[in-house]
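Shapes recur. One chain:

:::
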Amino acid sequence: MRGKKEDANILVIVMVLAGIAIIVDGHSMNWPAAAITSPRAPSVWNDALPVAEAGIEEALTQIQLLHTTGNGWS
C-alpha cells in the first residue's frame, strides 16, 4: 500500500505532465491559424501542389507498369 507522500508525488507528476500537454496542445492549435494568415502561405501552397501532383502521377504510372510489364519489382 502506498503512503500519502507517494500519492502526492504521483499527483504532482500527473499535474505537471497535464500542464505540459495543455501548453503543447494550445500551441499546436494556434500554429495553423498563424500559418494561414502568413503572407507566404499561398505561395508555399502553390509551390507544393505541382510536386504533390507529380508524385501521385509517378506512383500511378509505376502501379500501371507493375501490372502490365512487371517492371522488375517483386
Q: What stands out?
A: The first helix runs from residue 4 to 37.
